[in-house]
Design goal:
Blueprint: H1 5-21, H2 27-34, H3 40-52, E1 56-57, E2 66-67, H4 69-79, E3 84-85, H5 87-98, H6 104-119, E4 123-129, E5 135-144, E6 147-154, E7 159-165, H7 172-185, H8 196-206, H9 212-228, E8 229-235, H10 249-259, H11 262-265, E9 278-281, E10 293-303, E11 306-315, H12 320-338, E12 354-355, E13 358-359, E14 361-362
Length: 364
């Protein structure tokens, strides 16, 4: 999306003020932040246009606005300032990791505890199989008008299947059509490329009006996530209650239940490459329980054909750059220790800590 420089400045100001205050941001607050460079009237007009573009939302009848998920995405991709962790946080990470050198399991546990403590959000840590797991072939076996079996062959020669019961009938002809489309569009791709857009286009292609495509796609995502995850630990789930977005106990409980379900954890977003921070914002998450949250995660090398992952889950109103800097620094330290080094000497500007073309490091 092409925005004028003025709109970018205002959008950044709204995001950063809302992150700090958790209150809708008005034009006067933005004007005070920007000084005399832009008038309040101009800011009001620009904020109205940002709302019409879907980058801001007005939750109440007041003049204050908050960022939309799309607004956060533009902010993360284009406007976010590079953040360095504090000297104190860097020293805390170094000391904590150096005190847990007895084994990989201890390090993974400590990584999650550290991430939750430093960010105040629930954190998850896992070990995953190196490389990309994909589906090599789909077959659908017709049993009766309401029942069929999904048979999948993974690229590691593993075969998985699931019996599907439907409340509405499906014909053998429809299953044949579905097999052709899924083998054409869903094979050879990782879980993160099975998007709502792909699912919708597949439904249109086969004329699915009963939700069969969504059922098969959901099983496929679940299967690929499970194939990647080896061991997952979650810490700090009760930290959610410290954030105003989760003062609604029912809302907090739904997310906590999701984060403590081992089967659901396999569906958390995974970064594509070691050292690259991935941001998944609001409805970009496939799980319904995560639609009002953001997930920030980064991979690191474990060895023995494994990779580790450390991430946090929290409200979309998150200090994205600061959280990413801390996770990246933890991941960098884990990579150093798991490589067998007896000296944890982290390079603040390491190329292994990436956010697009930038990086994270320690304050000078």
């Amino acid at each position: 999306m092409n925005l004028s420089e003025r709109k970018k400045v205002i959008l950044r100001a709204v995001v950063e003020q809302y992150v700090q205050t958790a209150e809708p941001v008005g034009s006067k607050a933005v004007a005070a932040e920007l000084g005399s460079s832009i008038s309040s009237a101009t800011i009001r007009n620009e904020m109205a246009e940002l709302e019409s573009l879907g980058l801001l939302e007005q939750p109440h009848t007041s003049a204050g606005r908050v960022p939309s998920p799309l607004g956060y995405r533009i902010y993360v991709n284009e406007l976010m300032r590079r953040q360095k962790i504090s000297t104190d946080d860097a020293q805390m990470i170094t000391n904590a990791l150096k005190s847990r050198t007895s084994g990989k399991s201890d390090l993974i546990d400590e990584a999650g505890v550290l991430a939750s403590r430093l960010t105040t959000y629930p954190a998850y840590a896992m070990a995953t199989v190196a490389g990309v797991t994909t589906i090599a072939r789909f077959d659908f076996i017709f049993i009766d008008s309401h029942t069929f079996i999904i048979v999948t062959l993974l690229n590691n020669d593993t075969v998985k299947n699931k019996l599907i019961h439907l409340t509405v009938p499906v014909s053998p002809k429809m299953l044949t059509k579905l097999a052709a489309v899924f083998n054409a569009s869903f094979t050879g791709i990782p879980e993160e490329r099975i998007t709502p857009a792909l699912i919708s286009s597949t439904e249109r292609a086969v004329g699915d009006m009963i939700g069969v495509v969504a059922v098969i796609a959901g099983f496929t995502i679940e299967l690929l996530c499970e194939a990647k995850a080896i061991d997952t630990r979650v810490t700090g789930t009760m930290n959610l209650l410290n954030h105003p977005e989760y003062r609604d106990v029912d809302k907090a409980q739904r997310l906590i239940s999701y984060l403590t379900d081992d089967n659901e954890l396999a569906r958390l977003p995974l970064p594509n490459a070691s050292g690259e921070v991935k941001f998944t914002i609001g409805p970009e998450n496939l799980a319904d329980e995560l639609r009002d949250t953001s997930v920030i995660a980064v991979r690191y090398d474990v060895g023995d054909d494994l990779q580790g992952l450390i991430g946090v889950v929290g409200p979309t109103r998150m200090e994205y750059s600061k959280v990413a800097a801390k996770l990246s620094y933890i991941a960098q330290g884990l990579s150093v220790l798991l490589a067998g080094s007896d000296k944890l000497q982290l390079n603040p500007e390491s190329k292994n800590s990436k956010l697009g073309d930038g990086g994270f490091g320690q304050d000078e």
